Structure formats: C-alpha cells, structure tokens
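hey m, so remember when u said the tokens were messed up on ur end? i reran from scratch. heres the input so u can diff it against urs
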Amino acid sequence: MSQRDYYEVLGVSKSANESELKKAYRQQALKYHPDKNPGDKQAEDKFKEASEAYGILKDPEKRQVYDQYGHEGLKGSGFGGPRGFEDIFSQFGDIFGDFFGGGGGQQQTGADLRLDISITFEEAVFGAEKEVEVSKHNPCGTCKGSGAKPGHSPQACRTCRGTGQVIRAQGFFSVQSTCPDCRGAGHTITHPCSECHGDGRVLKNKTLSINIPAGVDDGSRLRLRGEGEPGPQGLPSGDLYVIMHVAAHESFHREGHDIHCRLMLTFSQAALGAEIQVPLLDKAKSKIISVPAGTQTNENYRIPGAGIPQLRGHGRGDQIIHFIVETPRGLNKKQKQLFKELSEIDGNPIKETLKGFFQKLRM
C-alpha cells in the first residue's frame, strides 16, 4: 500500500511554515490520540501517520530531501520509518504536554478547598483580620498519617513497583498513566489503620486567622497555600481559596477604585451655593465642601484620594459626590408666597399660557 503525501496527511500546503505545521499536527494528534480512541485501530494508524509526517516536515533537512525525492528519497537516508509511541512522546514532548500532560507523572497533592465568607463594605475597603472555621482532613494521630495500623508499614505497590505509574500497551503504542491500585502513591496499605481506614487522614474543624487586604472587591479570592486537604498517605496538602462576598453599603457604592454617593440639596442651597459637611468612608472623618451657586441635579464633586486603596500599588481612588436638587413638598403659606414672588421675578408665572408653553419648546 502506497504512502500518502505528508502534506496531505497534515492538511497543509507545501509552502506551510513551521507554525502552520505544528498547528496542523496538534489538531491531528488531539483527534486521533489512542487515549481518546481506545481500541480504534484506524485512529491509531492515523495518529502514527500524522506523527511520521510531522517528524519529517518539521526538520528542514528531512523536508528538503522529501520535497526533492519523495518517500523513496527518505528510505535511503535513514530518515523514514515508523516510530513507537514512547519515541513520539520524547520527540514531540512540547506538543503532547499541551494536551496530555507531557506523558509524565506529576506529584499528586490533596484537594483544594473553597470557603465563602461575608464581609462588610468597610472591611473590604480598609482590610480586616478575621477568624474562620474550615472543615478538612488532618493527618491521622493514630497512624501518624501513614495509613497503616500501628506496628505495620505501607508496602511498595506490586502493580507499579513503587513508581506510582503504569504503562499499558495499545497495539503499536504504550501509554503511561497513574497506577490505579495505589493512585500514584507508590505504595499500598495491607493493614489499614482502624481510625482512618488506611487513608492517613481524619476529618476535623480548624480555625484559621486570615488577613483581608485593604481594597478587595466582591468576588475577590485569597489563596492560603497548604491549607487545603492533605494528600492521601502523606502526600502534600492542597490550597484553601477564600472567596469574599462584600455586603452593600447604605450610602456608598463602588466603581473600580472610586466610591460614589448622593447628596440632596434644597433649592436654596443649589441656587445660592452652600458649605456642607459630608461623611467620608472612614466614619471618624468628614469634609466640608463648597457647593457652587447654581448647581444642577447630576453635577458632581470629586474628593481625590478618599476612595478605595489599590491592592497592588500605591494611592487610592476618589470619592465622587452626586448632587440631587430636591423639590420641596408641604410648603407653608409663607413659602408658597415667596415662590410665587420668585416666579414673577423670573418671568415665569405660575399660570403659563399655551402660547408661552410652545415658545419654550422651540428654545
């Protein structure tokens, strides 16, 4: 049976560059890898064919020979020929590392844990130290974390011979994976501890003190290394992720590093201007601001540096005050008379004619 053209196998043109070749091969490797197609001989052959094609075309010297003389030219050069699966892994380790973890066995750790906590708006802004309780496994006191009954020891796993990895054959290929019997630990427990039943861990509550940095936002995450679940049979612990949920504030809301609030003004204050004392985030502090005469609704006043501290930097955002001019209600007789006089001075009578109304619309 004649071999297919290598460019056709990868689905690229003869002018394809190194990046295009690599991308095409990655797609083929992902599609036809034996782990994704167990027992499929046709997929196995296509995977082998794509690996062989990429092995030739990615090498400038081999590619030149192939372009000039085709498959026949490679036979006499020692460049051609099928490769075993382990050889393919060693040659294209960077590609398989992206999709299949590189074929190697990484050290296992305990599971990561998540803890959701509620904090106040002020705690998020200024930071705080809080005590939290997390339920997690701890090394068993009876067996000291070994998982074995006192007086006994873990035994090297017979399946993987203590390596934690097994190699299984799939036709022409062989695949390395975590040992199913010892789960990668490299040893087994023949006489399990009665307290932890061979796991080496028992479930307990633990109180932790955490420092919440100033400037965290709703949904911010803190990572506490090594405070997750201990690994089985003495393996390293995972991490604890603390997720912050910030309660709403009755007066302020946050946008980035700035905080916003509203300040109600009377007609008199808005028209004449005023000196008004406004609260800051720090309850012990306040600031007197000058409201300009003629202030309109939705105009604002900015107080630099009175906002949210930056988590990874210096400085703070601003506090932005939005003015709202409030229409008075429940006027007494004198107030009504004064407003009538004001409307006459302005040339805006209380009883507007239809003609005057349309004139204003055209302005």
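this time it looks ok to me. The chain has ten helices and 15 strands. if urs says something different then somethings off w ur setup not the seq
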